[in-house]
Amino acid sequence: AMHIVVCIKQVPDSTPIRVHPVTNTIMRQGVPAIINPYDLFAIEEALRLKDKHGARVTVITMGPPQAEPALRKALAFGCDDAVLITDKIFSGADTLATSYVLASAIRMLDQENPVDLVFTGKQTIDGDTAQVGPGIAKRMSLELLTYVSRINEFDVANRRIVVERRAEGGVQVLETRLPALITMLEGSNEMRFGSTPNMFRAARAAVRHWDRTSAGIEDIKFVGLKGSPTIVSRVFGPTPRAEKAVQIAFDPANPDAAGAALLEKILVESPCAAKELAKRQPGYHEEE
């Protein structure tokens, strides 16, 4: 059967986030953890392919032991197998080190059962870089399809896939060969509810824990803080805006008046906008 791997991440719920004043890292203690919302679209898309074509879906994450509930939740949705890649040596990893570990683990899974397709979310809500999916694809020489909104055709026999991806100015339709890595766009599908049998199975399932040896990591200089060249100079929560919203009365009998009032307000508040608008007027000459 076809083998699909979905990479997910357990992230702190973004509402009550705090940043450590000294280390500039996100403080995760006491913050509820959730599956990265973008990854839910990746899980659902993998399960839809499983429903339609038959497949084994393995869900993996790199993280601390407390990331196990995120994997169990994925099992409750219908994934078949779960691997938690966890080792103290992985802590402090940036996207370069993370993609190194995940690519290595997927190669180990590929030895057990050849991997046809890898799914990731578009990005994570805690890092927001969108680099890990492409990083895995590059390390494993997989065909890379990013911001995929829809899978149009999936031909297992001929190992071809046709997808729609969102691009600036429209939609691209791309065809490529397998194995491939897909990063799913948000809003592309709707996450199913876990069925009762799957929930029971997820509660009893043995989530595999892989340390660096099981994950096939040979050189530890590429993982964790050692393998992370990214330097974070400063991380901060945005300060609440002080200014209040301005209300402009709208009279249905005279809709143009509201537009004129809004435009005047913008031009007063923003001299740059006023200058830009003036430039577009016929007969405008810039002052020397």
The proportion of residues forming helix, as a percent range, comes to: 25-40%
What's the end-to-end separation, in Å?
72 Å
The coarse silhouette is globular
Strand proportion = 15-25%
Q: Could you give the count of β-strands?
A: 13
* pLDDT averaged over residues: 87
Q: In words, what does this structure look like?
A:
With 288 residues, this protein is α/β, with parallel strands linked by helices. The protein contains seven helices and 13 strands. The protein has helices spanning 37-53, 68-77, 95-112, 132-140, 196-204, 255-269, 271-279, and strands spanning 2-7, 10-12, 18-19, 26-27, 33-35, 55-62, 81-85, 117-121, 143-155, 160-167, 170-177, 180-184, 208-210. The strands form three sheets. Strands 11-10-9-12-8-1-6-7-13 form a nine-stranded mixed β-sheet, with helices on both faces. A two-stranded antiparallel sheet has the order 2-5. A two-stranded antiparallel ribbon has the order 3-4. It starts with a strand and ends in a 9-residue tail after the last helix. The mean pLDDT is 87.
Task: List the keywords.
288 residues, alpha/beta, two-stranded antiparallel sheet, 7 helices, 13 strands, globular
In short:
The chain has 288 residues and is α/β, with parallel strands linked by helices.
List the helices and strands and how they pair.
Blueprint: E1 2-7, E2 10-12, E3 18-19, E4 26-27, E5 33-35, H1 37-53, E6 55-62, H2 68-77, E7 81-85, H3 95-112, E8 117-121, H4 132-140, E9 143-155, E10 160-167, E11 170-177, E12 180-184, H5 196-204, E13 208-210, H6 255-269, H7 271-279
Helix pairs in contact: 2-5, 3-4, 6-7
